[in-house]
């Protein structure tokens, strides 16, 4: 887990599938319920292991094959707080959406407390802000890179963001337990809040004149990425302090969005 | 296309689905036939546009919706060398493997000439070598990053490598037309050849003592990446000149393999 700088004001949601009780949401109003596509399961060896190791998780049901459970149990640093139901792989498949690559293990669990933007970012140095990045594989890989390169949180809109379970959690390989995900209602307003808190708001844009390496990396930086193809929306772009690109030296210009995020986080984190 | 430094000794394969006629394959012997899963189609807007722009491609059949074709045609810099069959999206789906995200366009085409290791790399500065990286999404994204950061070729084994069409080509977003893919029989022998040609063979390994930023980037570098989880195989590791890691500053250590490749290529290419 990244360190929490202030006590969190919200309770863990004990009722999976429903949204968290709306606490003090600041200027953004109450949360909307999640879409019907959200499965309450996390699956895959790394994702489940990390969730079992996270004391902030409320666990409901653990399905595992004998082999998968042996592998996970051998890596746990403390006894699991839930007894696995040892079942056949097909039974796990039936509990999950079609095509889920579960590696013999699935964990039904409650969502983590939903962090507040200001609480989460008040002492942060590196944030990622996603403007309509919807592909769960990409968002999961982005969370994983954030956990490797030390970004404290990833900010995304409630609308058009994938649920933090299933495909996303599998691609994140455990990073949903380490990186705070802040879901906000209005992206431009959130960027303005971050700006007021002292963050340099740097939008990644292939057409920018400056490269990311040229900005002042001693400042707290919120790096904004748009969807592939569409890029940053107009209002997002206008709210940024600076637009930057990654220096391309080959015949193509545009990276996959999760690769762009990884490279940008590395550039901000690399030893100087 | 990256520039070809010597005339290529092989012919374009005019017979898709079959392997190229075995030419002078040096010490590696004749090619094995591809697996039965190989579809001869490239699909998706960027992938098809790039293939149509590549004069080295022999084109067989182009299926497109009216909208997709309008979009592609508006971006072509020369008239297409093949007349599209304007069809319904469902007809394209039926021609492709289930679940293919074709965006309204699919192109049946011949494979590119299969480049020879020495011919391709004799004047190259940056290579990627993949040791059993099998996921086509990852390999496609790696090709895309290679095309952005100016790696001239990606070397992989004939066995355990995905076909250069379908999912891989879609994820590569056109990069299969720009980056040479050299398929070799024996990875350790190919690394030895590259070493003899003057490449520094740098294996990426999370347990290494050195970071990638510490190596001599003025030399030609062949960067070796293993599969996620398994990492580099023993013989591959032993053949490397140096093992290097990417500096992780957060709570996790391991990136998605395509993200690791992107970051490493960036580190080798970034302005100094």
Write structural notes for this entry.
Chain A contains 9 helices and 11 strands. A 7-stranded parallel β-sheet of chain A has the order 7-6-5-10-8-11-9. The model of chain A is unreliable at 1-37 (pLDDT under 50). The first copy, chain A, has helices at 45-52, 66-75, 89-95, 117-121, 136-149, 166-172, 187-196, 234-239, 257-269; strands spanning 41-43, 59-64, 85-86, 105-109, 126-131, 153-157, 180-184, 200-204, 210-211, 221-226, 242-245. Chain A is of the alpha/beta class and 272 residues long.
| % residues in beta strands of chain A | 15-25%
Write down the CATH topology of the largest domain in chain A. Alpha/beta knot
Largest sheet strand order of chain A: 7-6-5-10-8-11-9
**How many domain modules of chain A?**
2
In CATH, the architecture of the largest domain in chain A is 3-Layer(aba) Sandwich
Between the first and last Cα atoms of chain A, what is the distance in angstroms?
26 Å
User: How much helical structure, as a percent, in the residues of chain A?
Assistant: 25-40%
Q: Specify the biggest β-sheet of chain A.
A: 7 strands, parallel
**Oligomer type:** homodimer
Summarize the helix and strand pattern of chain A as letters.
Answer: EHEHEHEHEHEHEHEEEHEH
Regions with little confidence, pLDDT below 50 for 5+ residues of chain A: 1-37
Compact description:
Two copies of one chain form a homodimer. The first copy, chain A, is an alpha/beta fold and 272 residues long.
């Amino acid at each position: 887990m990244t360190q929490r700088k202030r006590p969190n004001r919200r309770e863990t949601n004990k009722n999976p599938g429903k949204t968290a009780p709306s606490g003090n949401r600041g200027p953004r109003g109450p949360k909307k319920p999640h879409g019907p596509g959200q499965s309450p399961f996390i699956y895959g060896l790394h994702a489940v292991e990390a969730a079992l190791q996270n004391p902030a998780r409320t666990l409901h049901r653990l399905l595992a094959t004998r082999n998968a459970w042996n592998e996970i149990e051998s890596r746990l640093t403390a006894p699991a707080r839930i007894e696995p139901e040892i079942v056949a792989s097909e039974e796990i498949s039936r509990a999950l959406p079609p095509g889920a690559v579960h590696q013999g293990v699935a964990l039904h669990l409650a969502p983590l407390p939903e962090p507040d933007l200001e609480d989460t970012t008040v002492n942060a140095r590196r944030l990622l802000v996603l403007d309509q990045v919807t592909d769960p594989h990409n968002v999961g890989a982005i969370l994983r890179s954030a956990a490797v390169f030390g970004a404290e949180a990833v900010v995304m809109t409630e609308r058009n963001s994938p649920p933090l379970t299933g495909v996303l959690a599998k691609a994140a390989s455990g990073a949903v337990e380490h990186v705070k995900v802040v879901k906000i209602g209005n992206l431009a307003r959130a960027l303005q809040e971050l700006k007021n808190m002292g963050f340099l708001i740097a939008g990644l844009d292939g057409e920018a004149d400056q490269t990311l390496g040229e900005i002042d990396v001693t400042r707290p930086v919120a790096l904004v990425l748009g969807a592939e193809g569409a890029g940053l929306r107009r209002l997002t772009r206008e709210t940024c302090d600076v637009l930057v690109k990654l220096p391309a030296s080959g015949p193509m210009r545009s990276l996959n969005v999760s690769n762009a995020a990884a490279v940008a986080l590395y550039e901000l984190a690399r030893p100087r």
